[in-house]
UniProtKB/TrEMBL annotation:
<dbReference type="Pfam" id="PF05256">
    <property type="entry name" value="UPF0223"/>
</dbReference>
<dbReference type="InterPro" id="IPR023324">
    <property type="entry name" value="BH2638-like_sf"/>
</dbReference>
<protein>
    <recommendedName>
        <fullName>UPF0223 protein JR050_13160</fullName>
    </recommendedName>
</protein>
<dbReference type="InterPro" id="IPR007920">
    <property type="entry name" value="UPF0223"/>
</dbReference>
<comment type="similarity">
    <text>Belongs to the UPF0223 family.</text>
</comment>
Length: 89
């Protein structure tokens, strides 16, 4: 990994950790697959920190630009597929 996660200096340490865990979960979905429930929990915690849809799009867009991993596609697949594991994207 040779990129930075998009974070805000206004967030608390716990909020930063939750956002980083969400983006790490997206990476895992792309690289090796992830348990659906694990990604769902990470996304819920992320949404507690970033409740605004426009801010979510901004942060996820920055992350995708840096990493090449689409949070939108991973979350969409999580919501559409009933399987326990989201296979490698």
């Amino acid at each position: 990994m040779s990129y930075e996660y998009p974070i805000s200096t206004d967030w608390t340490t716990d909020e930063i950790v939750n956002v980083i865990q969400f983006f790490s979960s997206i990476e895992k979905a792309y690289e090796s697959g992830i348990d659906r429930e694990q990604l769902s929990r990470a996304y819920k915690r992320f949404k507690e920190v970033v409740p605004s849809k426009s801010e979510e799009k901004k942060l996820c867009g920055e992350f995708e630009k840096e990493s090449g991993y689409s949070s939108y596609r991973a979350i969409k697949k999580m919501m559409e597929e009933p399987s326990k594991k989201i296979l490698k994207m």
